Protein: acyl-CoA oxidase
Organism: Couchioplanes caeruleus subsp. caeruleus
Amino acid sequence: MSRSHAGPVDPARLREVLDGRWAHIRKSARERIDDKFLPVYGESGEQARDRVSRLLRELPTDLGVTAAFPVEYGGAADPGATMVGGEMLAHLDLSLMVKAGVQWGLFGGAVVALGTRRHHDAYLRDIISANLMGCFAMTETGHGSDVQQLRTTCTYDPDTQTFDLHTPHPAARKDYIGNAARDGRMAVVFAQLVTHGRSHGVHAWLVPIRDDDGAAMPGVTIGDAGPKAGLLGVDNGRLTFDHVTVPREMLLDRYGQVAPDGAYTSPIPGDTRRFFTMLGTLVRGRVAVGGAASSAAKSALTIAVRYGDARRQFAEPGAEREIVLNDYLAHQRKLLPALATTYALHFAQEELVSALHDAQTATGPVDEHRQRELESRAAGLKAAHTWHATRTIQACREACGGAGYLAENRLPALKADTDVFTTFEGDNTVLLQLVAKGLLTGYRDAFGSLDGWGRATFVAEQVREVVLERTAARSLIQRLVSAVPGRDEEVALGDRGWHLRMFEDRERHLLESAIRRLRAGSATKKDRPFDIFNDVQDHVLKTATAHIDRVALEALVAGIERTTDPAARRLLSRVCDLYALSTIESDKGWFLEHGRLTPARSKAITAMVNDLLKELRPAMVTLVDAFGIPDEWLNCAILREEPGRQEAMAAHDAELRATARASQDVLTGPEVLPAQ
Amino acid sequence: MSRSHAGPVDPARLREVLDGRWAHIRKSARERIDDKFLPVYGESGEQARDRVSRLLRELPTDLGVTAAFPVEYGGAADPGATMVGGEMLAHLDLSLMVKAGVQWGLFGGAVVALGTRRHHDAYLRDIISANLMGCFAMTETGHGSDVQQLRTTCTYDPDTQTFDLHTPHPAARKDYIGNAARDGRMAVVFAQLVTHGRSHGVHAWLVPIRDDDGAAMPGVTIGDAGPKAGLLGVDNGRLTFDHVTVPREMLLDRYGQVAPDGAYTSPIPGDTRRFFTMLGTLVRGRVAVGGAASSAAKSALTIAVRYGDARRQFAEPGAEREIVLNDYLAHQRKLLPALATTYALHFAQEELVSALHDAQTATGPVDEHRQRELESRAAGLKAAHTWHATRTIQACREACGGAGYLAENRLPALKADTDVFTTFEGDNTVLLQLVAKGLLTGYRDAFGSLDGWGRATFVAEQVREVVLERTAARSLIQRLVSAVPGRDEEVALGDRGWHLRMFEDRERHLLESAIRRLRAGSATKKDRPFDIFNDVQDHVLKTATAHIDRVALEALVAGIERTTDPAARRLLSRVCDLYALSTIESDKGWFLEHGRLTPARSKAITAMVNDLLKELRPAMVTLVDAFGIPDEWLNCAILREEPGRQEAMAAHDAELRATARASQDVLTGPEVLPAQ
């Protein structure tokens, strides 16, 4: 570091801070994961499915992927361990991580959360051991985001005490269902429950889809979604039901029951509220996808930063100095702000996993408000992590040039596998609207915040006084913000309180103006309710992303507060400066429009960001080493080969200089003799 | 269109404008391309290579891919036809397009441009017929962008009148060489020419690498770059030479000759200038890559826009209206500005191809200034097209959700195949620096502008008074710009002259300030020449992109001027409004910082962009239909299936409504019975 700081930072000190509450899971994974789990390249789709299917059953227990299940059936009642174990698995193989998430998070998780004791007793042990492979069959070809409108029906017949599960037309087929095309023997199938001639909304049943010989059950048609852009090891399939008989007991009946005579009962009145309560219990899937995206971004950055530290480019004629990619300002701009954002989102994820764990292991009645906030936070961070990952991996691929396009250098798989994360487990745009709705209504929406955009009058009536709740390290942040002078121009650009206040003020302003516009729209566009929202959709989405930016900044600030090693603390503080200022710089148009930056201050921010890049450049490798991804896990040819290659080139060039005659062509350009 | 315009626009009228000077090539391709060239999904790498290799030899002549060659050998002396034929081929299969580009553009092109008559007589007919498959072996593992520093040597021995071609160490192996791993029998190999103990810089030789049985020639080791992220049909390989004997006559000797006694002569003094003159003749490769990227973006937008017009999402309860994806503001923001940019870049490409054709078919001495401008324009547009394509295809994939992730819907291949375009045929960042250098020096750099960043003092001395040259429809643009009042606030946001002036003023300001900063740096950082450039690298790159934005805007304005159909002209004018205003909006921070926008005007621009999106929404499908991509070429399952699927869903829903009993749960949310 070029300032007067005490020496370089030991990546191990940073790693301790990053490893967090479930550090033991991370350390165990680093030390003990067998080579068979390392990334593989060049497989066919069939080979990938075979390998992933086999490896799923060989995952070590101490990785934690089944830890969330109740102890009684083989779990550890430790949802946090499952989340963090998933993050480690995501460094190794994203298909395996997704398949594990389908099997245990979605399928097993649905049986736990939506089923009752007799389902748990009958199936959970086999699910946990992977003896019983299963799917989560909610999405239909015709309904993805709008799942409350799905069309599969399941109609009760009191005479036989069975349900009739039916796909009424081709668009209602279950689609993109992981574990369906090859392995699944049962599926949790979501359908509209109809009894006594009346629908009670979407419920879930446990339905056998394959017999022990692997043949489809009667009435069940299993199709294959075919080759995909990535996640080749996940067997996504399609399920169609032709009047399939389902015993009454197979209804997962925690939230809705059907008596033998067909009478329907439920502890939750209202189809919509019941459906979203059911969905809410599946929040872990969103947290897991966010964590996997975070891991993928870290893997990509580790590769790009280390390569950029080795790879020489355009050596300066006549200079002693070797220039490597990481020395270029444009290269730093590609990688360093993304690295800073990765740090901020990491700490936000750590807090989310912790909150999730505490909520899911708490006893006593569910705190509705807390649950809504958790769902909202999970949705917002899932969107942030996955968009950040796909953009960062893209930048890392470009930063590695042609080498980044070769499968053997890992980046193609990282890009292809994570690409779908922005639209599955919730389309990011829809998730941001969920976040916005929570902000607009203070999480007081009695319907739960997971529904689609609708009910204009309802939302307009519910919007209230805007009070931003601080998310982390509340008292510290309150102190920092309060200490900031009233006039922006008097504050140093590096003032943390000023950073926090800028983020807060932007969020507050966006929220207040969104509320004003929605109310105005409700008054003037009564005949066009769709337009009330649609006309401000961009504004609403920006409100949500501003909120998430603040969540990330506050989490990073809180993380720094917990850091005891002084050198690590100082480095993280500079990283935080970069995160805050590059985020403000990216949105300087908004801040200038709203009088929160003067033109001079805005230009000064750009200059300071460039200064920060220079300052952090020597620490780039330390910052990625701190992620603690074992080299073998990266399985990246250029990382193995480039340093040695550069050494050999330098040695060869030195030989040439020692033995060559001087060229007479000295005035016209570089010689074949290498610049030195 | 919602304004008082005369009726809808016939896509055929738009298509005529877009098809341009080589419309006959495009029409012939649309009507006559055989089904065997249609996209294929789910192949292994081996299958893709086999198919592409076979199809290369079956491409119809009237597609134009070999038209650039001299008539004498089977070409048509029509470089424009080759460029446009390549754009059409890029709609079908990007591996095939790239392989054709390697075989005829790079390999064949190098033989034409760098060789002399005896090379042409001996090889061109076989190259054109694809009987002789060849590679372009320039890039090395250790040197990609910095090719002037490549390490392969080729040393002349007068006693044997042969050269010794040698790879001095592993990092000097030729890498990422298309047509090498499977098919190539000869290669144009670039190496440092050494004779009489002295190097004369990089030259090219025609070197057999495989014999007629497919075995590697003595001393030649052929490796495989292995699986890649995309372009599976291109057999990228690695070439290592172990003291391979190359006859003297195999030197491609247009720009440098070696006499039997080893004496070197050249019409161009100076190794660097000679090298870049040689490279300059290969400008067609950059134009071709830009054109292919343009085609890929158009294919992706066609899919996403048509799907978004069919796919219903969150139907509004109780309303008559069906809501489809394209009705959402956020969806429009994903697709429409990208569509407008695609139009602007299309017209810029049309002009570039025309200029290239005219330059390459001109007789008489080469106009150096014109050549430099052409190289610069090709570099800048290659960067713009390829970044635009990869970002647009990403957005289109997300706009199509899970369906966009399935290979059968084309988007995965478009994304994977085009991903490398941003870093091959010139890394985009390096290309932008080339553009900037041309702007800074008025193309007066006697070295040619293709070299890497260097020679600080030279550049600083050469920078001159900034005069922006208008690129297209000069007199029209001059009139429009001159008519704009002095004060921005007095001008309507839709004023075309104001758009042009904003783009011009930004470019001029960036250029002038870049010059000031470079001169200041030259004075104060003499001891650190690398920092003179590096500290302003972001500024310099932005100058280049601002220039390219202006090139694109002027080309679109000129294209509108050529449009005779009134309805088409009005539609294109709105598209141009959207391109101009969304580009300004994206960079509003800069414009606000530099006093070219007030906060109020900036916010008004956002409002106007949203209005334009609404206005253009009904024309989205027309705008992509105008690209004229035959449906079969898209080979996209959702385009075939989604409209029918939606109809079936609507019919099914209508049946349900007709026969269902009303639910009593009316106060709590949507029923299973579909909304409306």
User: Anything to note?
Assistant: Chain B touches chain A through 114 residues (CB under 8 Å). The domain at 135-270 of chain B is CATH 2.40.110.10 (Butyryl-CoA Dehydrogenase, subunit A; domain 2).
